[in-house]
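JOB MANIFEST
job_type = single_chain_structure
chain_count = 1
residues = 183
[input]
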Amino acid sequence: MLCARRMAVVLGLAATLVVGPWAGPAPAQSLQEYRLGPGDRLSIKVFGNDDLSGEFEVDSLGRMSLPLLGLVEANNKTIAELQAEVTDGLDRDYIVNPRVTIQVINYRPFFILGQVTKPGSYPYIAGITVRQAIAVAGGFTRRAREEPVIVIHANDPGFAKNEVGLDTPVLPGDTLEVERRLF
């Protein structure tokens, strides 16, 4: 009994050391819960209605212009929410029991600034981590503070600065800031 308790304490301490002080909470959202925003490109298919199907981009105001429906608000909606809205709009006035599928073809870019070799905007790659994003930007400069990295999520209305570790997932539209170390 005593050995099991000691083992639990040791495992807890080991987990704390492995995770590190900047692991922070899990990301606020995954790609399943991803909220759409300006620059996202979507494929919308209405089964049996090729003239209503196609590729559409969310404009700078967060809207899309769809056949028959006109301007549809897409900003800050999940794919499921947008799919339900398009289905309801078509079902109400145009098509009996429409079957609509929506997929993201191209996510909006992420941004990285601060102490990296090539700061700027980069195309989003599904599953990319902070470490990989820094590699895409040419790596750290010699004055970079490597951890924590500041991440501002695109859909956060308060633009909160979150300190995260290098293995934290990056989401489309995120801004990463690598700060300068003091010494």
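[summary]
DSSP finds three helices and ten strands in the chain.
The first helix runs from residue 2 to 19.
exit_status = 0
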